[in-house]
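hey can u run this one w/ S-adenosyl-L-homocysteine bound, need the structure tokens asap thx
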Amino acid sequence: MKDIKSLTIDELRNDLTVLGEKPFRAAQIYKWLHVKLVSSFDDMTDLSVKLRERLKKEYSITNVSKLEVQTSKEDGTKKYLFELEDGNTVESVLMRYHHGNSVCISSQVGCRMGCRFCASTIGGCVRSLAPSEMLDQIYKITLDIGERISNVVIMGMGEPMDNYDNVVKFLGMISDENGLNISQRNLTVSTCGLVPEIRKLADLHLSITLAISLHAGTDEKRQKLMPIANKYSIDELMDGCIYYFNETGRRLTFEYSLIAGVNDTPQDADEIASLALRAHAHVNLIPVNPVTETGFKPTSGKDTAAFKNALEKRGVTATVRREMGRDIDGACGQLRKRRLDN
Ligand code: SAH
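ok here u go:
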């Protein structure tokens, strides 16, 4: 059966025409699925029973279900563990800011990128998520808190550019005016640096923010932390970033996880400053989240501030990302992993 929640409104309209149904039904059905967020055809009360039965024969409605929620007592951050219909699990995080609710979603079950500091990649990649499974993480959180989600970041489990087509479709659907209509300016995709996909994405001229997980300023150092650095050099990555900036006019963000004694020296800061200036990027600093298996320790608050100062002295804008939900299984993949280990 076809996954109806992964169909764009145009695809749904075409489908209904082929089935001999009225094309205007597409807008009605789309609204039930993507605005009213219902989980069954029987909830679509303005459709005839006959049409509902017909839809049930042709389509399934993909739902994720809440297995576990942890709420931070410090800042209200909520971490969700969702079960997919095949029994796999993924994590999502809700962060409450003064400017609105931000949700971090997963794009794959696990990840095959192998970054040394990351918990999501430890068991490899099981599979990529469908657009419906990415959308439904946001829908179920919206229903859970009864408030609008204004920002979405694809920074949970998985490498979004390793699930390119589904992620691009997701971006179109979540920002569709017929759906939740979240502005593209409030959507962020984070990648460890798959250069051909970065260029392909640039050609779509979306208004989303692209974040690059950089974590080191030289190829040698980056290769020790991130296997993808063996495939694409920092020079190739920077060229991809500049292409993205030129095509979209959108400033990029460099994600930089500070690891004590590994990538947090003044020389590291100097190298990152040069790269950020070259690619017109803003730098997001975050002390690495310790994961038992990795042995990495976060840079101290003092050294983090010094790193930020060094960037700013060179004319680079930098923020230290507030650590949200420190008292819950913060780092990507930790909640799922704990559950798999038990
Ligand atoms: N695969 C994508 C998106 C998911 S990870 C990417 O690599 O960008 C989201 C961000 O968290 C990335 O910048 C990633 O490098 C970082 N990250 C992963 N594990 C971390 C940890 N233990 N501490 C701090 N940041 C981490």
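The chain has a mean pLDDT of 95. anyway lmk if its weird
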